[in-house]
Amino acid sequence: MKYFVASDSLYHITEQYPATLPVFIANGFTQLADPQKRETFGKALQLEIALMMRQLDLDAFIMLLEQAIEGKEHNMAANSHDKGGIRMKGLLPCPVRLPLQESLDAFIASKEAQGVMIHAELKAASMGLDWMKDEVAAASSADELDDMYMSAGFDMFFEEAYFGRFIRSGEFADPISWKGINPLFSDVNNSLKDPRGRYGIIAVVPAVFLVNTEVLGERPVPQSWHDLLDPIYEKSVSLPVSDFDLFNAILLTIDKTYGREAVMALGRNMMQSMHPAQMVKSERQKDNKPAITIMPNFFTKMVKEGSVMKAVWPEDGAIISPIFMIGKKGRGKDLQDLVDLVSGREAASTLAHQGLFPSLHPDIDNRLKPDAKFLWLGWEYIDSNNLNQQFAACHEAFNGQYQTVKA
């Protein structure tokens, strides 16, 4: 080691060699982007221990740091357009991540054979967005970011502190090359295709009902979100509160479609929060069985034949959480090749058929009934509202803290 030893603290290394800071941040040490955290957190952690905790190879990482110090890493990033190096990050639901990762690995190998380096980090949605959001929040310019991002999550893509500022500046946009979108979505309000070309959507996660007919008793099976708000279902509904993307989409769409009082009614009707896998097995519980659970459509296929559980696609539409995709402008053919792979027919088939996440690809049969409807916020709503403020207000209403103003 030319410049430091493995027992040196992260703070010592970054203070002595500031060029190493982007390497640490890009590899998950996002706390170091904050000077105060860098001093407290960085002083407390030795390099070898930090890498062991994140399961990173010591020798390979030291090589990256030394390259950065010597200017090699900087030059590589500055000249990435010429060398064709492309980087992407994504978060996908568990049922489809592995098959898509296999396709990505084959694509990366073929590109490497052509002398083009592709780095694609595709993680399971269950890991959450924080690792990606921290990186984006710490970036002072688009040059510090990867070339392509893909995930569900309204706040990360629209909030100014994250991608909002880079979308507004025109440095990122919708990279998908389809000429149209799947006819299944032709009746969705305002269309799912962004009319301003800023955000791409490759597929959606639809929320449907799973009804335990035994627990429901004499009450009617709810056929719509409007039905679900009825007081007869008070303390009978389980919601995926821990799935922030889907839960936020549900609250905002209910608020937009049926009003703030409807969000309050949904909160009153909630019995408990459960993971979808728990919801499917809830009929086996002895106590506290929910009569109705709201979940991604994929999990309804886990229900055993002859079960008391009945899947219901809401008549007013399955509320959707879109899987967004954005790409950096001006990155040329190599990025477009990567985009075309991830948004192409084979990936769309995986999303639609293995994950039951309906694809917007125009040539895919999503294998849903022709009358299957969807509910979503719409671009007009997104563009005219501060989504974080709306999230906060809807959460207050859902938790019974919102007070209506009476004349």
Could you list the spans in which at least 5 consecutive residues all have pLDDT below 50?
Answer: 72-84
For this structure, what is the CATH homologous superfamily of the largest domain?
A: Periplasmic binding protein-like II
Overall structural class, as computed from helix and strand content, comes to alpha/beta
Rg calculated over all Cα atoms: 23 Å
Number of individual domains = 3
- Reading off the top of the CATH hierarchy, the class of the largest domain is best stated as Alpha Beta
Helix content: 40-55%
Brief digest:
With 407 residues, this protein is α/β, with parallel strands linked by helices. The protein has helices spanning 10-16, 21-26, 35-43, 47-53, 58-69, 72-78, 80-83, 94-113, 130-138, 154-158, 160-168, 213-216, 225-228, 244-258, 260-269, 276-280, 297-300, 332-342, 345-354, 379-384, 387-398; strands spanning 86-92, 118-124, 148-151, 172-173, 200-212, 237-239, 270-273, 292-296, 309-312, 318-328, 374-375.
